[in-house]
Write a structure and sequence with these properties.
Blueprint (H helix, E strand, L loop, with lengths): L8 H13 L3 H14 L4 H13 L3 H15 L7 H11 L3 H14 L5 H20 L7 E4 L9 E8 L2 E8 L2 E8 L2 E5 L4 E7 L2 E6 L6 E7 L5 E6 L10 E9 L2 E8 L9 E6 L10 E2 L10 E7 L2 E6 L9 E6 L9 E2 L10 E7 L4 E6 L15 E6 L13 H11 L3 E4 L18 H10 L1 H11 L6 H32 L3 E10 L5 H20 L5 H6 L2 E10 L13 H6 L1 H6 L1 E10 L8 E3 L3 E7 L4 E10 L5 E8 L4 E5 L3 E2 L4 E9 L6 E11 L5 E9 L2
Parallel strand pairs: 22-23, 26-33
Antiparallel strand pairs: 1-20, 2-3, 3-4, 4-5, 6-7, 7-8, 8-9, 10-11, 11-12, 12-13, 14-15, 15-16, 16-17, 18-19, 19-20, 21-24, 22-24, 25-27, 27-31, 28-30, 28-32, 29-31, 32-33
Helix pairs in contact: 1-2, 1-3, 2-3, 3-4, 4-5, 5-6, 6-7, 10-11
Amino acid sequence: MLQSQAQSPDVFLNYAENAMESKQWPIAFEWAKQAYESDTTSFEAQAVLAVCAYEIKEFELSSRLFLRMNAKDLGQLQPDALFYVASAKKQMGEYEEAEIYFRSFLKKSKSTNPYFKSKAKQEIKNCVWAKEYVGKIDSLHHYRLPQKYQHKEADILPRFMGDHVHFYFKSEGHWNGSFIQDTAVVVESNPEILAVSVLDQLAVGISNKNGTPKLVECLLNKDSLWITKKEIELLNEDGAYVGMPCLANIDGIITLFFVSDREGGEGGKDIWISRLQKNGTWQKPFNAGKKVNSQDDELSPFYAQERLFFSSSWLEGFGGWDVYYAEGRPGSFALATNAGKPINSNFNDWGLSIYPENNIGFFASDRPLNDSTSLPPCCTDIYAFVWQPKMDSIPTKKDSLMLVVTDVNMQLPIKLYFHNDEPNPNSLDTLTTFTFLETTTNYFNLKNKYISKLTEQEKENKFIEEEVSAFYENELQQGIDKLAKLEQDLLAELKKGSHVRVTVRGFASPRAASDYNRRISLRRISSIRNQWMQDPRFTVYIQSGSLELIGIPFGESKAASDVSDDISNEKKSIYSKGARLERRVEIERVEIERVLADSICLKWNETLSYLGRVKPGSQHVIAFELTNCGNTTLYIEEVESSCGCTIPEVTTTEILPKEKVTIKATYTVSQKSEGKEIRFVSVYIKGLPTQILTIESIVTR
């Protein structure tokens, strides 16, 4: 703790600002804290403390101070306050609040910072994405390397080199090399070359000899330390940053990925690419392109399995730096995809390297040790992740039906929302003539009424317009967009002659009696059926029974705390966000059956078992019953599951005409699982298309 020695707040502020200039944020925070505690009425002290708190990731304190300042001066002296509030909320994983503050910043702030304006627009998209994907966790097993391999300040860029794991750590402001040999840590103090990437006999690293980073080819000296062989002059540009090289062999061509802020990029630090030519010289570098690079920085490229892995703080993510991958090859990369949890968190995650031949990968993260957002993170540590050789729930190309079922069901549930008592208000009917899109057209027209009603009842709430706009643009419009995507997928299967069964469950707010809610749920489900009946693409399939819609009226669900069954309380029973979210139907499952030849008849009691909410570690036995309703004996050649957590058993492999066979699947939920899980059992019957049985659950803790 820095000692104040009874000095004035202005002196503390001066110390804090000096530390801020050199980016010594922890020291700046301590001085700013003393300045604020000496005079809590000082707007300047509050502003400096808020910025410093944000930089050292004390996000809760930072957001509270910035909100207080914004309320006090309405953004006059601190026009960027709401941007910092929103950013802090996102870093804490509070995506819904973050989105509202980003919207308010764009609408109300007098900020002249063009980057903040552009970033806020992107962050609104990122928050929408994060809200949807925050509960989806991959089955990868990840763990922090033991404490003896970690260092106080930072550990970064873990890589396999031969039989060793090599990484770099910061100590007293200097970077050092280190590698794990057996269980011991060997340190290379103040190495000449950093961030070395090795491919066969070639090694490329970064020399910082004269205080300016340069890409160099390097070699090991007699003491097994990396030294410069020659500078790669073409790739180094005066005044430009270069770093984080990664070598890869792509179709026999040695390719170098590196990071630079040289001219000609998309903004900030970008990923650049160069190829080694036959004469031993490097090709002029080219930018990885807009599908990888953004206005922000992109870092730590690593190429494996025809994927370019890298980190960015601009693209759709959970917060801070996230790891992404872009499939393809240089010059033809696809749009980058977030690598998901547990690799990513709402803190900084980067420096990924992956080694499929060893079923292991590494990355660096400054997430708290308990992976909780309740504490500010401290240091960047090294993490590893492993998987089984046969990765969980990733279908192979031999099963096109499994791929289709996986893709379709991972889109679910699709939530479709309705205005109060729509369609057909004050009716006891269970059917309607309206289509779903007709009801949403009316709902969109009521947006200003929702804002007006809520503003009347919550005069102190300055963010009503932003919250309502977020609902309309996200939940309402997103449901429509997802339905359109699902329709495309279903149509492709229907055209192949498949039988498709769609299950829709209705929900309603507790404003009316349960029987009335059941009826309105049925009307809403009916509007989905009408949508397809009146769509010429689907009419014939509905009429023939190839497309079947099963409706489950659920009535009143468990209402949120801001939802009321008091009819006189319009705010809580009609206009509040809780009430809006209750009035919906959910497309919760899709079953697809491929049609067989006329002489063959198979009948399953079910092909999709939806277990609902399950607990980690729980075990479930599902019995799928198959009837041979044809006149030909069927032979089961093999039954296999998509992962080791699901064990299938079959009572017999020969099914005589009119007989039945039971296939039992024992599904054990991993202790580490959370969120939606889909598991498959593939049944291979001689001479027939593969039969896919699906087990779906929501793992909750």
